What does this fold into?
Amino acid sequence: MKSRNISITVEEYGSFSELATSDKQLVQQAREASKNAYSPYSHFQVGAAVLLSNGEVVAASNQENGAYPSGLCAERTALFYAGARFPGAAVVAIAIAAQSGGRFCARPVYPCGACRQVMLESEMRGGQPVRIIMDGEQAVEVVQSAHDLLPLSFTLE
Ligand code: THU
It folds into this structure.
């Protein structure tokens, strides 16, 4: 038996103000989008803003449904809409922000497994890494590729 370690690099920023201007703008758009969440069941409002290689930004929020599994996370809502609206554009980055009870989360919001899988396919489809910016009021964390959040991933290759 052999074993191997898999490590990832997570950039940690003390707060939003430490980010580069372009990342700040994307986080701001994710925060803004979280206000449009339809989340009467969880009361958790998530926003995602996707920056595309053509310069467009597609922002969306989580959309829940009384038949619970029918709802969709903010990240997948944004990524699928970006793919539907701009099929030829690669995804460059995605920012994720969340609020609950009228306050943005203190710690970064990490995407769920299903969203990670969709981010990974966006990355492969676009042929370039997708930066993932996970916002929190007291810390913002960034990884440079969807692979970082989903090692040993399933692909069709
Ligand atoms: N949610 C997201 O939109 N993104 C995530 O990364 C995690 C969870 C949503 C799904 C559901 O509407 C609510 O947050 C509570 O889980």
In short: The radius of gyration is 15 Å. Strands lie at 11-13, 44-52, 57-61, 91-100, 103-104, 131-134, 140-143. The mean pLDDT is 97.
